[in-house]
Amino acid sequence: MGSGTTRVVVGEFVKGEKNPKIIGVGEAETSGLRHGYVIDANSALISIKNAVANAEKTSGIKIKRAFVSVSGSTLRGETGSGGVIISKADGEVTTLDINKALEDCENNLNLGNKKVIHVYPVSFRLDGKEVLGRLEGMRGTRLEVKALFVTYSIQHLEDLIAVIAEAGVETIDVIASPVALANIALMEKQNG
Question: In sequence order, which residues have a C-beta less than 8 Å from that of residue 37 and are 6 or more positions away?
Answer without folding.
Answer: 72, 156, 159, 160
